[in-house]
């Protein structure tokens, strides 16, 4: 993993983590209890949860109109963004953000038409959840002072190929 004592100032980062007033418990709990096993149910739940967390990140930054685009532009590596765009078959981050919102709404609202859920495979849904999780981890690591280059290396290393 590219985030080690030799690559970042862990003492300062741990101190920042302990002083953090943000509630990062959903993402931390998800990482702590990670099994690697996914079903449609878990993928759907993770996508809705992570999309909601992206909305919160944008809201806190005063970017309410860019609730998915802002966190991707600010906290996701270029490789992560490219892989999300490829998964949704979109040519811009703005279009991809709209697609994320559409997918989230299809899952969260049972009576909505199912455009994305009929087009995307379970494997693709799992990847989308992983890309969103890595974006949120990017936010969390930025928040506690991990250098951007270490975050990019981490995200690039752990983002699954499309």
Radius of gyration: 16 Å
Shape verdict: globular
Structural class: mainly alpha
| Strand percent estimate | under 5%
Separate helix tally: 9
What is the domain total for the residues?
1
Helical content class: 55-70%
Largest sheet: none
Cα-to-Cα separation, first versus last residue: 21 Å
Number of strand elements: 0
Helix and strand succession?
Answer: HHHHHHHHH
Sequence stretches where pLDDT stays below 50 over 5 or more residues: none
Q: Brief overview, please?
A:
This protein is mainly α and 162 residues long.
Explain what this protein looks like in three dimensions.
The chain has one domain (39-158). By secondary structure, the chain is mostly helical. It is globular, with a radius of gyration of 16 Å. The chain is built from nine helices and no strands. The mean pLDDT is 89.
Write a concise keyword list for the protein shown above.
single chain, 162 residues, mainly alpha, 69% helix, Apea-like HEPN domain-containing protein, HEPN_Apea
């Amino acid at each position: 993993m590219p985030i080690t004592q030799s690559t970042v100032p862990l003492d300062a980062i741990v101190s920042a983590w302990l002083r953090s007033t943000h509630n990062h418990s959903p993402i931390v709990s998800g990482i702590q209890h990670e099994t690697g096993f996914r079903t449609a149910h878990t993928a759907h739940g993770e996508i809705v949860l992570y999309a909601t967390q992206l909305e919160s990140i944008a809201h806190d930054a005063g970017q309410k109109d860019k609730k998915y685009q802002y966190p991707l532009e600010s906290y996701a590596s270029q490789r992560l963004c490219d892989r999300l765009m490829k998964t949704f078959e979109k040519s811009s981050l703005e279009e991809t953000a709209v697609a994320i919102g559409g997918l989230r709404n299809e899952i969260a609202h049972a009576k909505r038409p199912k455009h994305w859920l009929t087009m995307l495979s379970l494997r693709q849904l799992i990847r989308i959840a992983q890309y969103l999780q890595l974006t949120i981890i990017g936010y969390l690591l930025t928040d506690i002072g991990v250098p951007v280059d270490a975050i990019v290396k981490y995200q690039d290393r752990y983002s699954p190929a499309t």
